[in-house]
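Sequence in, structure out. Go.
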Amino acid sequence: MKYIKLSIIIKSATKPPYFIGSQLRGALGYALKKVTCINPSFECAKCFAKENCLYYEFYEQKNKQHKYRFDFNLGKDFYEFDFYLFEDVCMKLPYVVSAFHMMLTKNGLGKEKAIYKDFDMFINDKNCITGGELKLPKDFINTLKIDNFCPDAKVELQTPLRIKKDNRFVRDDKIELKDIVNSIYQRQMQLLDRGFKKFPYEIKGEVIKKELSYKELTRKSNRQKTTMNLGGIMGMLEIEGLNEETYNVLKLGELIACGKSTVFGLGKIKVEELNG
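Output:
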């Protein structure tokens, strides 16, 4: 899996919302459209260039896995977040960096459109702002490598996980290891532009402990004039007896996330050695 991690830390006393995913995605979209759009009408539906437009791909194109996601912790006292690009859209990094810079320095965040001048921006943990100017590294595409294996692991669901079973989103602790593994694997296939493919290995691992609860989250859609539910399962599972193939998929989930609405920062998981 090819990826880029872009990280931003804003040095400000302004406390962000508990859940920043909706705000950030909306603000990025507004800036990205300004950066990429060459259509004077600014309308996507009949645009001659939409098939080659990053904004259209990220925000308007339907029935396709979007090859990016936000990553952050809930309830922080300041803005600190990551933004991941995957596979072929990694080459569009300059547009994304320009859009984030415009978002922070010109367009602003929140209802007050707060502008920020004092912030750090990193690409794969390397500072890309020098003397107030943006500078991209020559080699900025990473490839995921999983060098370790641990048969006993704890999986933390750090932002709400939205997975459907029997056509309904799971709202209790009935989530199973196979649900998580299959969700991550199918997301991987979609990011690689491949069709549905059953996980080719046996899913091995016994869940010995669950501490899960449903977390309510909502977002207001200015475009649709509605309130959308983004709630999901949070907590942790302790698992013993994982085989290497299952473990590797869980580790992949740390990078690409799991379940629905990952573009908003949902489905963030962390895998740690149990009792390690």
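Check: The chain has five helices and 16 strands. The radius of gyration is 19 Å.
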